[in-house]
Design a protein that fits this description.
The protein is of the alpha/beta class. The strands form two sheets. A nine-stranded mixed β-sheet has the order 1-2-3-4-5-6-7-8-9. The chain has a four-stranded antiparallel β-sheet with strand order 10-11-12-13. α10 links the parallel β5 and β6. α11 crosses α12. It is globular and about 70 Å long. It starts with a helix and ends with a helix. It binds iron/sulfur cluster.
C-alpha cells in the first residue's frame, strides 16, 4: 500500500463516533446528526479535517452530513440527466467534441452538495469492469477530441490503473486532450507523488480541473501539491461551486481567485449549485452569483474571473451568465456601462457605407464614454477659448 493510501485508510474519519471524538461531544449534537449518518456515507481526510476550525464553519458544512439532506423539495436525483446522455456504461456524451468518462466510483472525502451523489461511493453504479464498451465508443466517435476522466475522483486510482487509462486513450488518434476532474489536491495532497508526476508526462497534454470552494482550502501542503502538478506540465484549472454559507460572498470569492492564480491554477468556472436532491440547502440565488461576478469583473485581472454558469437542469449543458452591461443595442451603436457603472457608446461599423466605398471596415471603432466624452469636449472648448484670448 502506498503512503497516500495508508493516510486515506488509517487517518480519515468515516463515522459519527469518530467525528464526536475528534471535535468533542460537548459541541456536537450526536442525536441530531444520527438520522443523517444512518442515511449517508461520510469520509473526511486529514487534509480536509485540518481545514475545519469549528463546528458549522464552511469546511464542516461541505463534508459533514446533516438532516437537511433528507429534506427534498425541488431537488432531482440526476439533476443534469447525465444518464439520459449515456450511450454506454461510464460514458456521458452531451457536447459535440468531448465526452465524460467515469473511471472511479469513490472520492477521498465526500462533498455534501455533490451532483453525482446518486452514484459516488457506490461501485455498483460506476462499475469498474465495463470499460470495453466505453473505449469502443470513444474509438468509434471520431468527433470526440477531449475526454474528461471523472467519477468519483480518478486520482483515487493507483498509478498503474491511471496509466492503463492514459495508454488506452492515447491509442485513439482523434483524442487530443485528456482532462482529469479531481478534488484530490484539496482532500489528499499526498496523492500527488513524484511517481505520478513523472508518469503523467508521458501522456500529455493532460489537464487537471481542480475543485476549490474557499481560499483557506489552499493550505501550504495543497499549494505544494499544485506546484508539483504544474512542474509536471499539467495545465491547471479550477471549478468552484457557489454554496450558501460557504463562499456566497464577493470578498471570499475574490480571495479564492487570487490564491488560485498564485498557485498557478486558472479559475475556470463558478457553478450555481445544481438542483440536486439532498443538496438544496446549499443553493443560493442567481442574483448572488451575478453580484459576485460583477464584483470580480474589471475590479481584478481577467485571469481571476471564471465563467459563471448554470448547468441547465434536464441536460441542457452549461449556460454562461453575465451581469447586465448592455443598455441598448441597435444598428448604429451599442450603449453599455463599464465595471464602475459609467455609460459608454460603441459605434457599430458602417457596413453599408463601407461596402459602397470599400474603406471603412477595419478602421478603429469610436468608443466614447458619454459623460466623460461630454466633459472632454467642454474642456477642449474652454482650452480653445483660452488659447484664442491669449493670442
Ligand atoms: S470530490 Fe467531486 S465527485 Fe467527489 S464527492 Fe466531491 S464533488 Fe462529488
Amino acid at each position: 500500500m502506498s503512503e497516500w493510501q495508508s493516510i486515506l485508510k488509517e487517518k480519515s474519519i468515516a463515522s459519527l463516533e469518530q467525528l464526536a471524538e475528534r471535535f468533542g461531544r460537548d459541541v456536537i449534537d450526536v442525536e441530531a446528526l444520527k438520522p443523517a449518518f444512518d442515511n449517508f456515507q461520510m469520509r473526511i481526510t486529514p487534509a480536509a479535517l485540518e481545514q475545519i476550525k469549528e463546528v458549522g464553519d464552511p469546511f464542516w458544512q461541505q463534508y459533514v452530513p446533516t438532516v437537511e439532506e433528507l429534506d427534498i423539495r425541488d431537488g432531482m436525483i440526476d439533476s443534469l440527466e447525465e444518464d439520459a446522455d449515456s450511450p454506454v456504461p461510464n460514458i456521458t456524451h452531451r457536447y459535440p467534441d468531448r465526452a465524460l468518462f467515469l473511471v472511479s466510483p469513490v472520492c477521498a472525502s465526500y462533498c455534501r452538495f455533490c451532483t453525482r451523489r446518486r452514484k459516488v461511493g457506490d461501485p455498483e453504479k460506476i462499475p469498474l469492469n465495463q470499460f470495453d464498451s466505453a473505449f469502443e465508443y470513444l474509438r468509434e466517435h471520431t468527433e470526440i477530441r477531449d475526454v474528461i476522466m471523472s467519477g468519483g475522483d480518478p486520482m483515487m486510482l493507483s498509478d498503474r490503473r491511471l496509466e492503463y487509462f492514459f495508454q488506452k486513450l492515447r491509442e485513439i488518434p482523434h483524442i487530443e486532450i485528456i482532462r482529469i476532474g479531481s478534488r484530490i489536491t484539496s482532500h489528499l495532497p499526498e496523492r500527488i507523488t513524484p511517481e505520478f508526476c513523472e508518469m503523467v508526462q508521458k501522456y500529455h497534454p493532460v489537464f487537471m480541473n481542480t475543485h476549490f470552494n474557499h481560499p483557506e482550502e489552499l493550505t501550504p501542503p495543497v499549494v505544494a501539491a499544485l506546484d508539483r502538478l504544474a512542474k509536471a506540465g499539467m495545465p491547471l484549472g479550477c471549478q468552484t461551486v457557489l454554496l450558501r454559507g460557504v463562499n456566497d460572498d464577493p470578498r471570499v470569492m475574490m480571495e479564492l481567485m487570487h490564491r488560485l492564480l498564485k498557485a498557478r491554477v486558472r479559475p475556470y468556472y463558478i457553478y450555481m449549485a445544481d438542483q440536486v436532491a439532498g443538496g438544496e440547502h446549499f443553493r443560493t440565488t442567481v442574483q448572488k452569483g451575478l453580484e459576485i461576478v460583477k464584483a470580480l469583473r474589471g475590479w481584478t485581472s481577467g485571469l481571476a474571473v471564471p465563467h459563471f454558469v448554470i448547468d441547465a437542469p434536464g441536460g441542457g449543458g452549461k449556460v454562461p451568465l453575465l451581469p447586465e452591461y448592455v443598455e441598448e443595442i441597435n444598428d448604429d451603436e451599442v450603449i453599455f456601462r463599464n465595471y464602475t457603472g459609467e455609460r459608454y457608446v460603441y459605434k457599430q461599423p458602417r457596413v453599408a457605407a463601407a461596402a459602397a466605398c470599400g474603406s471603412e471596415i477595419g478602421t478603429t471603432p469610436d468608443i466614447v464614454p458619454i459623460e466623460v466624452g461630454k466633459k472632454k469636449t467642454a474642456q477642449r472648448r474652454r482650452r480653445a477659448a483660452a488659447t484664442a484670448r491669449n493670442r
